[in-house]
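Onboarding guide, step 5: your first structure request.
Type a short instruction followed by the sequence, for example:

Predict the 3D structure of this protein.
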Amino acid sequence: KMLGALLTGINRAFPFTDGELESFEDHLNTLFKVVHISPIATSIQSLMLLYQVMESRQEVSDRYYRALYAKLLDADLNHSKGQAMFLNVLFKSLKCDPSLTRVKAFMKRILQACSIHQPPFICGCLFLISELLKLKSSLWPFIREAEDDEENFKDVCLEDESDVLPQPEGENNAVSQDTKPQMVYLPKARNPLYCRAEHSCLWELVLLSQHYHPSVQAFAKALSEGEHVAYKGDPLTDFTTLKFLDKFVYKNPKQKKIRSRRFHNAANTKMFKNRISIEF
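The system replies with structure tokens like these:
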């Protein structure tokens, strides 16, 4: 807790420094170590400080993106109170990333991590991707186009099989084969630059479009159809269970049509007289 409080204070005071970064250079390795071994709240503060230091130098290292890429699969993020800060530093990092290949890898892992999270965080991730597509419109084909199909099978037609002579075995006379490696997406790769995400697509949106939460379905379908997510609120707070129950508590009851007392009494008197006449 003490380390997290110190990092929070440094993050707030860093924008007001004079720009002398020599003192931070000696502690970068320690900050990266804190990201990997500390609790999720302290890790987020370390990522925020690392981003500020590297952004001030006008360069964000691959090591930082690898640490951020690995932190997406942290299960403790599901119950953390720092989800808003994490999505904030994630959006800033992807916005300034010049590599579209790495951004595509992050987009796939973000949607894959949504499978272990609650609807508020999922809606926040989908909204983040929508805002990222506004800044980098060249990423839209990554959603619309299908995956690359590297395996093409064709039948070989031979006019006369007797004309085909057996070839002697040997290295020089071996049957030619297609030695081109298949570009298959590697979801377990540590470095997002080399997970081959550019040869895949965001098929994870198909699963999210069938989610049990209606807001998640609406956000995912909007992205699948090539539209931006139109939402002005805060998904992390607007789609919680407490907010959902508050809608029923503070909902105005429906006004029922109440008959006038005079008409009600007259109807009862008429029914009473008819009953007496039938009995006698």
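Each response can be followed by summary notes, for example: Residues 261-279 form the longest helix (19 residues).
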